[in-house]
């Protein structure tokens, strides 16, 4: 059987079967893209196709653009999930931190820590200082940086952690809590 491409094999009909509308390929494409879990491709394929046609871009580059958009969007959603899972009381970054207000804080060291290499080296960080010296903001910003770099984070206070540990011990699920905490990178 000859298909559109002139090769033998499964034929692609030149006309739609009776009773189908011209929208059927779009419906099938949407269905398949949902099954394949490609929401960005589903949302963007038509717009990108028009842009590529206008710019004279070939099919491989069209597909490349679509897949790159999908990958970028997946990474964004993954980071958002990590941030939600971290349970930060507020999302803070170093962009909003006023280093000038705390002259005793070593800005270069803090920014170096935001690269998260200490996590790979399994090093601890202790933030000491009086109230209002930016310890929580720095901790939240380091946690956000870790989420953005692919690390899992769990934010808690010392009091909340002690409470969780005591409750887990009383309910005989201390080992599970310890495993859960150990699985988090920061």
Automatic annotation (TrEMBL):
One of its GO terms (biological process) is DNA replication. InterPro entries: IstB_ATP-bd, P-loop_NTPase. Residues 32-181 form the IstB-like ATP-binding domain. Residues 1-10 have a biased composition (Polar residues). Gene3D superfamilies: P-loop containing nucleotide triphosphate hydrolases. Signal peptide: none annotated. This is DNA replication protein DnaC. It comes from Polymorphobacter multimanifer.
